[in-house]
């Protein structure tokens, strides 16, 4: 059974069997506007919580997406190379950004659940 | 810029009602996007008609027996050679020939002109022009107007439906169709279109009529920026600055030959010297390979890794369908087709020098 967590930086993580699928929330994609490019990470890259994992680019600006926890990239969503707008149309589904193997599952305790995130964005 | 100094558009309530997202620009709180989003706003302007509130820009009326002499001193321009209703792009230059601002000068009468200046420089421009006017029998009057732009192939038709006929007005011409109105066929998107300065009450009425036309959509500053960049038009403060002269900026076409040779405008000597020795760097179009945008501030390198210049404007061109940018490169590299490399977060992205504009201009020239 997957559990979904949220960060105050507007990322979501769906954790299943020690692997987190990470993306940005619908609120975040709406704030960013139409995405035209996603700079994806390489598989095997080790990230510390707070590192820039992905850069998403809209017509107007580039924005960093941070690693919400420590871990190692196991997969990047290659579909976004040809269709970055998937992040706009399906931010929490087909528009996921990367998957990572958790280095320390206890870090999840510091993240929000959906209700807390909804309260966070008001 | 934030806090109490932020200026607000007279029609801000209308933008709020339209769901605009606001942001700070040149001291103003400006609509950046509307619910349609940058991509749709940009494409709507190219395909039908986009409505822009550009009231942050400033209209000045310059009049008096020596208005021509004042403008000829302030700008590399032969104001006396302008026929009535003709508009011309010109500049305020500093003594070093650097561009203090770019502006559009329109001749309204024998001794009456309209000058349209950029938002960020409006206060400095007024001070500059007033100081110069002390030496001439001329008056400088900033006008209190709402300023709207309607741009796109259907702009004329939307105005016509709103009761404003534009038929005989051609690109870079301006008229006063009603009392306290100024309307020019110009704009900053590369499309056919109009800029209209008018009193607030009239503006509210006109906006209501225009928005009742399904072809017309409010367009924010974000799409204005991608539109002008695709059209190869400079943004002051970014692509042109007081450190850049018109020769480096590839804008000498805006300065008549005889004015270059013998004009007594501020900065004339410096500009002549700059033209004589040839600019060390030139403004060019930049077309990045692939899909990744290359943005303002990115450093450029030649094929051997030597510094070659920098990007001054960059983003994605929704109509071009690829990233677009502008910047300065060393003069020998300023030829379409030459490849340079942009440093984007440590990765070298191949970028080809490109001719401008990225999307063809569709001005109504006659």
Gist?
The complex is a heterodimer of chains A (122) and B (366). Chain A is an alpha+beta fold and 122 residues long.
Protein model, in words:
The complex is a heterodimer of chains A (122) and B (366). Chain A has 122 residues and is an alpha+beta fold. Chain A has helices at residues 26-32, 79-82, 86-89, 114-121, and strands spanning 3-6, 11-16, 19-24, 35-39, 46-47, 52-58, 62-66, 71-76, 98-102. In chain A, a hairpin with a 3-residue loop joins strand 6 and strand 7 (62-66). Chain A is globular and about 35 Å long. The model of chain A has no long low-confidence stretch (mean pLDDT 95). Chain B has a 6-stranded mixed sheet with strand order 11-12-13-10-4-14. Chain B has a 6-stranded antiparallel β-barrel with strand order 15-18-17-16-19-20. Chain B has a 5-stranded antiparallel sheet with strand order 6-7-8-5-9, covered by helices on one side. In chain B, strand 16 (299-301) and strand 17 (307-317) form a beta hairpin. In chain B, helix 2 (38-47) crosses helix 7. Chain A binds chain B through residues 33-34, 36-37, 39, 55, 57-62, 81, 84, and chain B through 33, 37-39, 42, 222-223, 225-226, 291-293, 295, 315-316, 318, 323, 345.
